[in-house]
Each structure stands twice: as structure tokens, then as C-alpha cells.
Design a protein that fits this description.
Blueprint (H helix, E strand, L loop, with lengths): L3 E2 L7 E4 L3 E7 L5 E7 L9 E5 L5 E2 L2 E7 L6 E7 L2 E2 L3 E2 L14 E2 L21 E3 L23 E4 L1 H4 L15 H6 L1 H7 L3 E4 L40 H15 L3 E6 L16 H9 L23 H17 L4 E4 L18 H8 L7 E4 L19 E3 L1 H12 L5 H8 L16 E4 L8 H4 L35 H20 L3 E5 L33 H16 L1 H4 L6 E2 L11 E6 L14 E8 L4 E8 L5 E4 L7 E6 L13 E2 L4 E4 L3 E7 H4 L5
Parallel strand pairs: 13-14, 13-20, 14-15, 15-16, 16-17, 17-18, 18-19, 19-20, 21-22
Antiparallel strand pairs: 1-7, 2-3, 3-7, 4-5, 4-8, 6-7, 8-12, 9-10, 11-12, 22-23, 23-24, 24-29, 25-28, 26-27, 26-29
Helix pairs in contact: 6-7, 8-9, 11-12
Length: 692
């Protein structure tokens, strides 16, 4: 038997020491705790059980012990003893529990989610925690790119779906992995994005899904520290961290940042009828919001809600973020349902959540790129007043407003102008500061861009829930035919609308986010909730015959335009709004809104048009953008330019003239915009040197 010592309460989890391994875990209400050591991940019984003495191996809420002659690769788990909480959940000593701070997991070949539920023992079918290194990422060799928010363009992707197809050109054993992603970095770099955002790569439970389905997206965390094994190149649990480091290093070397979509608002343990896997069995009352009768308070829509501002929950989240940022090198995080993390006791919204204050004051976390959803499933929605200064938010109003305008809805022109200018109506009358609003048209949950212009309703029968799942209010438009169409007029209009939506997104104030495959017209057949689809329906196509390469070219050039003119398209200080030019204007940037007539924007309910221009001082205009969502062509009056106009974008033109390699001269005091089209003009002095 191995000798044991008192151990230390810090660091959390398991850590190698000169004598062996130190273990530390929070279990404040437990009466007893056992550490179980296993020979390997498939072992059905522990080779040694160590009972911790609560008088010697406990410091406050944390139990700890040091065991001699252990090393990296050691498999372990815990049993916690104590009373069942009201509601018949809490301590279940028959269950072998994962260490919430374990950096690797083994035992996937024997794991059974069903056996983790109820009172029966599950040592023969449990997951095991694995002792790993805690090395820091080599930032000297692979420094963070640190793109400014002004120039940041985010590309959201799913690791598994990105390279799973055989036409990806990735070796079969690396498809759908982070190493497979490395091989596609040149394609992402060539597209023109600066930052990739990965759907959850924390270890999740694929079995947390309806019968016959798998949880594919990963919004069902089993661990906040461990990479998901399905995204790694080897079954060796120690290899997973090295794979993540290789991927992050390759991204940094390519000038790309890596953000992780992280789920700190709930876990895979579900409601009180779910499995006891980790958090529930060790510190149920500390990790989860509950009422007085022990029922879980659910604002995540997944059965439980994390008490992120409880000291124990808060500490574990902070440690998880440091693990991924400092040890594995990622550049930031996107918090799924992040506003849930601002709730206190009994789900009370907090204006100064301790978790957010801790993140913003932490020297290793405060300078990362941080983004959050400002809503949760309990109805809390805080955009302007999101309770953290350094955390940007997803602007769902941008998505809805822009979709409605190009769809041709009433009361949409004014809203569209607001979204394009940085949503001042949502931010106390002032355009949002750069780095506070992430704008998007599509995301993983919802229609793809191609489906947005091809379907009026969702088609989710393949998910096995009789089309009940997924969003019903999509602001989509099929342009006369539901689904694929051979009608040239319908195809033409759909192509045009995709360009309208992308150009609006990329030329608007704020930080744009693109969704995987939108650049090549990826379709999911109208499925707007493919969370359980590990199939070609959700996979990224790579065969050129299946890709809209003309759309990709348009987007590449659009991104080049955005990066070439940041001080016009996305200036650090928003331009002032004026009704007309003043004779003695100074040289600062100012903006004017128009309709078909100069200086006369039409905000009527029936309006389907708007236009805007940018000027410096009393000189002429430097930029003009016109939007026509009406069903017929319209003539727009043009402001006097500072130098002759050059046409950059006209979505009504065929590719590649919709955004030509070089700006083309335009003469005239007015311009015709075809129905459902968008035009961008720049002054010649601005266009000099522009080439796409």
C-alpha cells in the first residue's frame, strides 16, 4: 500500500509532487470522503481505496491528501458520504465521482450514463479522472496575435463537423479532430478572418440526448478542464492536452486567435432525475441553484443552473479559465447563456457579480477576448447594462433587425439603420463602443445563411422530436419556393440576398461573426437545430462542386475591404450624426442618413430603403452605401463626393463584378439600385491602392 500524507488544499484537482501526487477537492457538506485509485481507465474495481480523515485531510471546504509513488497517468475517482438532500439528490456513495478539476478523463469504453443514475453502484461502468501535467503554454514561441477589436472578425465553427467529410482531404484518423483543423488553417487565413470560435471542446457526454441520437454540439459538459476525447488524435488521455496546444500554437503561428465557446451555466447532470457524475455528488448545494425543497432552479433549459457566484463554483470556473488560457494557450472565451452567471441566491440578478469582478481583476484573464450571450432561458436579457465592463455581448437584435429589413418587413428601415450604426437605440442613444457588441446574421443555432434565404419554416424532423425543437421565429424568406429551386429567378434573388446580408454585417459598426460554411453556401436542408446530427447534414463540404465559390470570393473581397478601411467602416470613435453639411465643419468624421432623396431618410412603416454617407469636415462625402429592399429598382440621389465616386460593391451584378478586383469609376448625381440590392461607393482618394 502506498504511503499517504496530509497534502495541501491547493492547487485544486490532482498535481504531481516530488513524492507522488497531491489531490484536492471541494466537498463542504460531506461526512466522509474516499479516494479510489484504479490501474487504468477500464478497470472495474479500484486497486486501492484511501479514506480521508476529516480532522487531518480537510481545510475548510476542501479535502486533500498526498499519495506517494504515483505519477502522470494515474486514474482515480472519489466517493462522497453524507445525507441525501431534500428532493432525493446529493450524496450517493455508491457512485464513483469525477474530480471536477481533473484535466483528463479515461474510461470511455466502459462508461454507462444510465448506471450513473439512481442508487446502484457504478464502479464497473464509471469514468475516471487522470493525473496530468500542468505545464504552461509556450507564448514565447507562439505569441498571442492580439488583434484589436476594431479589426476582429470571428468565424464560429464546430471542430467535428469542420473536417468530418471525406472530401476534406484530411486523413481518416484525423477527421473531426483539432489536428485535422490545423490542416485547414490556410483556408481560414485566406478567407480573411482573424479569430476562430470553437463550439464546446470541453469533455461532454454524447449520451445526453434522446434515444437513438448523440449530443454533437457539446453543450452538455462533463468537465470544464478536460478536452473532449472525440476531438483528439489518440485514445491516450494524456495526449489530449498536447493536441490542443498544437492546434492553438498553429493558429497563433498563422495569426489567428482562438476563442472557446464555454458552458459554465449548467452541466450534464441534468435535473434531479439525471446522473450523479461529479459536481452533484461532491457539493450539490454549492454548485447548483436550488429552492428550499431541493428542486433545481433551471434557467439554462437543461435541467440545472450553476451557482457561479457561490465561492466554490466561482473558484472552479476561474481555475478552468486559467487552465485553458495559461496552460493551453487559448485567447478568450464566449460564455454560453453567460448572463446566468450573473445570478445570485435564488437566481437574483446581480449588478456586480463576484465572478465577473474576479475575471476582470485577474491578471491572467482580464486581457483576454471575452464574449457572452446576454440572455438566459429564465427571461433575463441584459445588453446595454450587461454587468461586466470588459465582456462583449452577442447582439441578437442585430440579427433580427437586419433579417427583417432584407426580408421586406414593415417598420424595419429605421431599425436597420440603428443596427448598422452601432445600435444607439439599445445603448442609451450612443453607438456601441468597439469591442462591446458582436454582430451576427447566423450562428450554430438557427438557419445557415443559405437556408435563411431558402426556407420559410424549420425542417427538423430528422432530430426525432416531431419538429418541436428549434426556433420558430426565424425572420427567414424562401423567395417563393420552399427549399431547393431550379427557377433561375429564385436562385438569382437568393444569391443576391446572401450578399446583401454579408455586406451589411461586414460594413456595420461592431465586431462581426460569421458561421461555418456560410461563405460557400452550406445548407442543412432547413434544419435549424442540428445539435444531434453527426452526419453530412451538419458537416462542412469541401468538394468545389458542392461549394458556392463565387460567394466565397465575394466574402474574401468584402473582408479585404473592411480591413483596408477600418477608420471609415468601423472607426474607434463613432461619427457624429448630422442632417446636413455645415460650411465651417472641421475635419472630423460625420455621418448623414438619406432616402432616395438626399438628407431625407424615410422611416415610414412601409419604407424598404435607406442610405448613408460619411464625410470629413465641410468636404464632400468619402463613402456612400445604399440599401434597397423594395421589390422594384429605385433611383437614389448621391451626395457630392470629396473626389470622384468609385464603385466598390453592387450586389445586383453578377460575380465577380458584384465586388470587382479594383474599384470602378462611377459618374452621375444619382444611381439606380436594383430591387433587393446594395451598393457601396467610395471617393477616389479613398479607393487609391484598393485591390481585391
Amino acid at each position: 500500500m502506498r504511503r499517504i500524507h496530509l497534502g495541501c488544499p491547493w492547487p485544486l484537482g490532482s498535481s504531481v509532487t516530488p513524492r507522488g501526487v497531491n489531490f484536492s477537492v471541494a466537498a463542504p457538506a460531506a461526512d466522509r470522503l474516499e479516494l479510489l485509485l484504479f490501474t487504468d481507465g477500464s478497470a472495474r474495481t479500484p486497486e486501492q481505496v484511501i479514506e480521508l480523515d476529516r480532522r487531518r485531510h480537510r481545510s475548510g471546504d476542501y479535502w486533500h491528501v498526498e499519495v506517494e509513488n504515483l505519477q502522470e497517468g494515474c486514474c482515480y475517482g472519489y466517493r462522497a458520504f453524507g445525507p441525501l438532500a431534500p428532493g432525493a439528490h446529493g450524496f450517493r456513495p455508491a457512485k464513483v465521482l469525477l474530480d471536477p478539476a481533473a484535466r483528463a478523463i479515461s474510461g470511455w469504453d466502459v462508461y454507462d450514463r444510465v448506471l450513473a443514475t439512481g442508487p446502484s453502484p457504478n464502479a464497473h461502468a464509471c469514468l475516471k479522472s487522470v493525473v496530468t501535467e500542468r505545464d504552461h503554454f509556450d507564448f514565447q514561441q507562439h505569441p498571442r496575435p492580439r488583434h484589436s477589436w476594431q479589426r476582429t472578425v470571428i468565424y464560429e465553427l464546430h471542430v467535428g463537423n469542420f473536417t468530418n467529410r471525406s472530401d476534406s482531404g484530411i486523413a481518416a484518423d484525423q477527421r473531426g479532430t483539432v489536428l485535422g483543423l490545423i490542416e485547414k488553417l490556410p483556408a481560414l487565413k485566406d478567407l480573411g478572418i482573424t479569430t476562430i470560435e470553437l463550439l464546446p471542446v470541453f469533455a461532454f457526454d454524447p449520451a445526453d440526448a434522446p434515444p437513438g441520437r448523440d449530443n454533437v454540439w457539446g453543450y452538455s459538459p462533463l468537465s470544464w478542464f478536460t478536452p473532449h476525447p472525440g476531438y483528439c488524435s489518440s485514445t491516450d488521455p494524456l495526449q489530449s492536452r498536447h493536441d490542443i496546444r498544437r492546434m492553438v500554437a498553429a493558429c497563433h503561428d498563422a495569426g489567428l486567435e482562438v476563442l472557446l465557446d464555454v458552458v459554465y451555466n449548467h452541466t450534464s447532470e441534468g435535473n434531479r432525475h439525471g446522473p450523479t457524475l461529479s459536481w452533484r455528488g461532491l457539493a450539490d448545494r454549492s454548485y447548483y441553484h436550488q429552492n428550499k425543497t431541493g428542486e433545481y432552479l433551471d434557467v439554462s433549459g437543461c435541467g440545472n443552473s450553476i451557482a457561479a457566484n457561490h465561492p466554490i463554483g466561482r473558484q472552479l470556473i476561474l481555475e478552468s479559465m486559467r487552465c485553458w488560457a495559461v496552460e493551453l494557450g487559448v485567447d478568450g472565451f464566449r460564455f454560453d447563456l453567460g448572463i446566468e452567471m450573473s445570478r445570485g441566491d435564488q437566481l437574483k440578478p446581480l449588478d456586480q457579480p463576484p465572478l465577473f469582478e474576479a475575471i476582470e481583476s485577474d491578471p491572467e484573464l482580464s486581457d483576454l477576448k471575452l464574449v457572452s450571450e446576454p440572455w438566459d432561458c429564465g427571461g433575463l436579457y441584459r445588453l446595454e447594462d450587461f454587468p461586466a465592463r470588459r465582456i462583449a455581448t452577442w447582439n441578437g437584435h442585430f440579427r433580427d433587425g437586419v433579417r427583417r429589413f432584407w426580408k421586406g418587413d414593415d417598420h424595419s428601415a429605421w431599425t436597420m439603420a440603428q443596427r448598422f450604426h452601432g445600435s444607439p437605440d439599445l445603448y442609451s442613444g450612443k453607438p456601441v463602443s468597439i469591442g462591446k457588441s458582436v454582430n451576427f446574421i447566423t450562428a450554430h443555432d438557427g438557419f445557415t445563411l443559405a437556408d435563411l434565404v431558402s426556407y420559410n419554416r424549420k425542417h427538423n424532423l430528422a432530430n426525432g422530436e416531431n419538429n418541436r425543437d428549434g426556433e420558430n421565429h426565424n425572420n427567414s424568406w424562401n423567395h417563393g419556393v420552399e427549399g431547393p429551386s431550379s427557377d433561375p429567378a429564385v436562385q438569382l434573388l437568393r444569391r443576391r440576398q446572401q450578399r446583401n446580408l454579408l455586406a451589411t454585417l461586414l460594413l456595420a459598426r461592431g465586431v462581426p461573426m460569421l458561421s461555418m460554411g456560410d461563405e460557400i453556401g452550406r445548407s442543412q436542408g432547413g434544419n435549424n437545430n442540428s445539435w444531434c446530427q453527426d452526419s453530412p447534414l451538419g458537416w462542412m463540404p469541401w468538394n468545389p462542386d458542392l461549394c458556392d465559390l463565387e460567394l466565397k470570393t465575394f466574402l474574401q473581397r468584402l473582408l479585404t475591404l473592411r480591413q483596408a478601411l477600418p477608420n471609415l467602416i468601423n472607426p474607434l470613435s463613432p461619427p457624429r450624426q448630422k442632417l446636413k453639411r455645415q460650411p465651417h465643419d472641421q475635419g472630423d468624421l460625420w455621418q448623414q442618413w438619406h432616402g432616395v432623396e438626399l438628407g431625407q431618410p424615410d422611416w415610414a412603416a412601409w419604407s424598404r430603403t435607406t442610405a448613408t454617407s460619411l464625410h470629413t469636415g465641410s468636404r464632400g462625402a468619402l463613402l456612400w452605401i445604399g440599401f434597397n429592399a423594395y421589390k422594384e429598382p429605385l433611383d437614389f440621389a448621391l451626395p457630392v463626393p470629396a473626389s470622384p465616386w468609385m464603385r466598390v460593391v453592387d450586389t445586383a451584378m453578377a460575380s465577380p463584378d458584384d465586388l470587382p478586383e479594383e474599384p470602378e469609376p462611377f459618374e452621375g448625381v444619382e444611381i439606380e439600385l436594383d430591387h433587393h440590392s446594395m451598393v457601396v461607393l467610395v471617393a477616389r482618394e479613398v479607393a487609391n491602392g484598393l485591390k481585391f
